Automatic annotation (TrEMBL):
It comes from the Bacteria. Its EC number is 4.1.1.36, 6.3.2.5. GO terms for molecular function: FMN binding; metal ion binding; phosphopantothenate--cysteine ligase activity; phosphopantothenoylcysteine decarboxylase activity. CTP binds at residues 285, 295, 329, 343, 347. Transmembrane segments: none annotated. Residues 1-196 are annotated as: Phosphopantothenoylcysteine decarboxylase. Signal peptide: none annotated. Keywords: Decarboxylase, Flavoprotein, FMN, Ligase, Lyase, Magnesium, Metal-binding, Multifunctional enzyme. InterPro entries: CoaB-like_sf, CoaBC, DNA/pantothenate-metab_flavo_C, Flavin_trans-like, Flavoprotein. This is Coenzyme A biosynthesis bifunctional protein CoaBC. The gene is coaBC. Its cofactor is Mg(2+); FMN. GO terms for biological process: coenzyme A biosynthetic process; pantothenate catabolic process.
Amino acid sequence: MLTGKTIVLGVTGGIAAFKAASLCSKLVQKGADVHVIMTESAKQFITELTFQSLSKNPVYSDTFDERDPSVVSHIHLADEADLVLIAPATANMIAKMAHGLADDMLSTTLLATEAPVMIAPAMNVHMYAHPAVQANMRLLESRGVMMIEPGEGLLACGYVGKGRLEEPETIVQVVERFFAARNESVQGQGLLRGKKVIVTSGGTVERIDPVRYITNDSSGKMGFAIAKAAKDMGAEVHVVYGHTDVEPPSDVDAVKVQSAEDMYRAVLEHWEDSDLVIKAAAVADYRPKVTAASKMKKSGDTMTLELVKTVDILEELGKTKTKQFLIGFAAETNDVEKYAQDKLKRKNADLIVANDVTAEGAGFRSDTNIVQVYDAGGLVEQMPVMTKDEVARRLLTIAAARMNGALS
Ligand code: PMT
């Protein structure tokens, strides 16, 4: 899996630096060409010779220790890397990265590289929870740096909690999955070229009065991941989204709506000439019968709100579809398969993606999901816990194969 991949492994100064030796060895065993850069503090915990012996490559720690006159080492390593992995990443290195400091070989290489960067933080539980560290990590994430969250347990400092470097085996799995996903995305490029795709995302908002409404927990992450993946696969993408916690991808046509009725109308704008529609939005099943024009006043101990059914967008699309491939989602809390199958048939969808929204790592707001894909014949695929980006790519690969007449 890692053969032919050049990984720059940055090792910074924490007690977990000793685990980086095992990590280096495992990456090499998987076929990676590993180049280690150590900070001066890391050398307090483990020697350069250890990494040199394991990686069979020279180890760098001094920006000015130029061994090959034909190249500038930190630029050469930065250019050669397919991935820069920092494990363990101390609070200090995370802060340097967040603020763009370049005062040693590793931080300088990090500024110079265009390769993807993944970091596995490790530190004391209170340091990890410190708002400055958390803010720096969020900033790095917003720039695309991938985090391998530390595990919980007994820390070298004596505390029990979150801050322990993730186990080398797990880090290697994350690295392998990263390259596999990138490979899949390269293979997937063009799979939806020329196709028009509509994706709905987020939760609808059904107004009670000017200050109150009914909505749900959808963050928009699942729908936007699908929109982004469809765009990457070459499709023309229209996103219709309601209430979300995150912004839609910047390079797709995105229309913000409120209610189920608004969403239905916006979807119909592109429906006729669309090829693929994915309804990841969490649409309210009921709305207040009347929306009060002014703020409703408190009166009496109880209040009854009369609700009426909203339009079922997926069901309506299912009735009028011609060439369109229709994918619905099913957010369930129990009897997932039964309800998913029922929705597939009732709404005349080609595929239903079921998620148990009570499962850890699945459903609303989380960055990951666990889904089962069904067609009229039953289970098509049970996906393990995957990031929503990975779920999106896999789902669209299945859909593209079916739209092109090949089952997947
Ligand atoms: O946005 P995230 O935080 O990332 O969370 C993702 C998610 C949990 C919202 C997503 O994975 C998901 O499950 N979306 C569907 C939510 C939902 O409304 O499920 P449902 O089982 O109630 O509806 C079944 C299908 O019918 C859905 O495709 C839904 O969009 C559609 N529907 C439902 C009601 C309605 N009035 N019109 C519809 O089109």
